[in-house]
Amino acid sequence: MNTILITGANGNIGSYIAEYYASKGDTLHLLYHKSDERLLKLVNAYPTIHYQTCDLVDLQQVETACAKLREASGSIPEIIIHTSSKRSTDFAEIETSSPELWYEIIKNNLFSVYNLLRVNLPLMKEHDYGRIVLFGSNVSRIGLPKGTAYAVSKAGIVNLVRSVAQELQDYNITINALSPGPIQIDDSHFSEEYREFRKRYYAKELNQIPKKRLAELDDIIHVCDFLTAENSSYISGEEFFVTGGKL
Ligand SMILES: NC(=O)c1ccc[n+]([C@@H]2O[C@H](COP(=O)([O-])OP(=O)(O)OC[C@H]3O[C@@H](n4cnc5c(N)ncnc54)[C@H](OP(=O)(O)O)[C@@H]3O)[C@@H](O)[C@H]2O)c1
Fold first, then answer.
1. Whose CA is nearest to atom 19 of ligand 1?
2. Segment 76-100, tens digit of pLDDT
3. Which of 8, 9, 149, 159 has the fewest beta carbons closer than 10 A?
4. Whether the Cβ atoms of residue 113 and residue 47 lie closer than 8 Å to each other
5. What would the pLDDT profile of 31-87 be if each residue is shown by its tens digit?
6. Which of 35, 51, 53, 84 has the most ligand 1 atoms within 8 A of CB, as the residue to mutate?
7. How far apart are CA 8 and CA 27, in angstroms?
């Protein structure tokens, strides 16, 4: 059994991953942000889950939330699965995209990782153990027209992974990026405009996926299990694509 810290725990993917590991009996430290409907269902079903809200962009909030989780559970995270992320939602080409939103997405998607690692790596180093999985996206490889900030932030995560893996060479701590293509998820909570954007984008993607289907959440879990296994100690600094064979 492990102690697993999961960010974006109210998100589509974060909540699914959390439920999977809760059902296996792992100790969960869940971080969520503003919305909490999935998280509350989860903690009702698994009352031993530890959870805290925080804005991952705020270092002080991350420090406090993680300290409270450690105190409540009496354990430190051996595994971190970082799913939280902000999307480009203005669907605009770069020269007409909102500079405020561009800045927000870059800040959100990169500083959340920085803060998470800054707070948790010293503890992992002290115990000489850690398995870290940061969610990227296949847009790090193919780009995302009308979504440049998101695409740039995901590519940034990949180079952070490559750099930090080298900083961790003397420790039994691995860090990797998991970069899925489009995933079959419940999109009912998205705005009408974003659902339309997704529909168009996913239809185009589906045509190009050799496996002829979108990723299922279980395809993602499978890779999380692999990357967080104790014996995956030789795999670090990599980006793992889950794209049904699409390059
Ligand atoms: N879904 C896909 O098809 C797909 C494809 C490729 C890659 N991915 C990647 O997979 C990951 C999970 O995707 P998803 O579909 O589960 O996304 P999601 O449902 O939008 O969940 C993202 C979560 O991140 C949280 N979050 C955003 N900013 C935060 C902040 N500053 N501090 C703390 N939490 C914050 C959000 O909380 P609030 O809503 O309360 O702000 C939300 O619960 C993301 O990294 C995404 O880029 C997804």
1. 11
2. 999 999 999 999 888 999 999 999 9
3. 159
4. no
5. 999 999 999 999 999 999 999 999 999 999 999 999 999 999 999 999 999 999 999
6. 84
7. 17
